[in-house]
Write a structure and sequence with these properties.
- The chain is mainly β.
- Helix content is 7%, strand content 43%.
- The strands form four sheets. Strands 1, 2, 3, 4, 5, 6, 7 and 8 form an eight-stranded mixed beta sheet that branches. Strands 12, 15, 17, 18 and 19 form a five-stranded mixed beta sheet that branches.
- The two termini are 24 Å apart.
Length: 279
């Protein structure tokens, strides 16, 4: 997780519930009021939550609540760890703080996206992304689930979501006034903003949070012909997210195409990457 990015986005979207505290002089107790969690199963068959640890480092935890959640989904939840030693690869926790709330999740598509947006955000960013501890070639610690946030003017009963696409025929960007191909070992993912129901009443500024399951996009890119591991065991692929935001206000507002991310693969300056690891 890019800590600086998370702090910036949390400030923008006023997500104040994401914090943790370590208690006790010997730091043997961890209380996390609310964290992002991906539910998965370890080789031992135990259902766990892959969590960021909120400053304590990424870890697997299980609890009575976590054991009942839906595998493959992402949640916000809280937990308390009293014994910070673990010989089994995960920590047994108590339920603590926020009760589990499932986050809206959409699967990324390896197809050309529609150019239509049902709504346009005034801002958009990555709240949390899968940052490492890779376990297989295609799936990593957080299951390639990325959490995105946006702010948009929506009606009370609108049901907003986001969709994510990899269009191999539109891997282009403008540099110095010239449009050109981005080249191999880079990827642009398009984001579209959808709503399945149109609400009523006056519009108001609304925070939207969505989980993007980017595992299929990650796999599709590797087979697209634009990937080359160059004989290396680990290959980082920098990512840019392309979206349209609402620029201006009232009748004069227009859609403006933006990108976030950069093409750096240096860990000190790279923003978002896919990592491919050979078995």
């Amino acid at each position: 997780m890019k800590t600086s990015m998370l702090k910036l986005i949390c400030c923008v979207f006023s997500i104040a519930f994401l914090f943790s505290s370590c208690l006790g002089e010997t730091n043997t107790e961890i209380e996390v009021v609310a964290d992002y969690a991906y539910i998965t199963t370890l080789g031992s068959g135990v259902q766990v939550a892959a969590v960021s640890g909120q400053g304590n480092g990424p870890m697997y935890v299980t609890s009575p609540q976590i054991a009942t959640l839906q595998r493959g989904q992402c949640y916000t939840l809280g937990y308390k760890i009293s014994n910070t030693s673990s010989a089994s690869g995960y920590y047994v926790a108590e339920d603590f703080g926020a009760k589990a709330v499932m986050l809206n999740q959409t699967m990324g598509h390896p197809t050309a996206p529609s150019e239509e947006n049902d709504y346009l955000p005034t801002s958009f960013g990555v709240l949390f992304y899968d940052y490492g501890l890779l376990t297989t070639t295609y799936q990593s610690f957080f299951g390639d689930r990325w959490i995105f946030g946006a702010k948009a003017s929506l009606r009370d009963k609108d049901d907003p979501s986001m969709e994510f696409y990899y269009d191999p025929n539109n891997q282009k960007e403008e540099v110095n006034g010239q449009m050109g191909e981005i080249g191999d070992n880079k990827i642009i993912i398009d984001v579209r903003f959808k709503r399945t129901n149109s609400g009523d009443g006056a519009e108001a500024s609304t925070n939207v949070m969505c989980v993007g399951d980017l595992s299929y996009i990650k796999y599709s890119f590797q087979t697209s012909g634009h990937f080359n591991d160059n004989g290396q065991k680990s290959t980082p692929i920098p990512i840019k997210f392309r979206y349209t935001r609402l620029d201006g206000s009232g009748a004069s507002a227009v859609g403006k195409t933006e990108t976030i991310g950069n093409w750096s693969t240096d860990s000190a300056s790279a923003m978002f990457v896919f990592n491919y690891v050979k078995e």
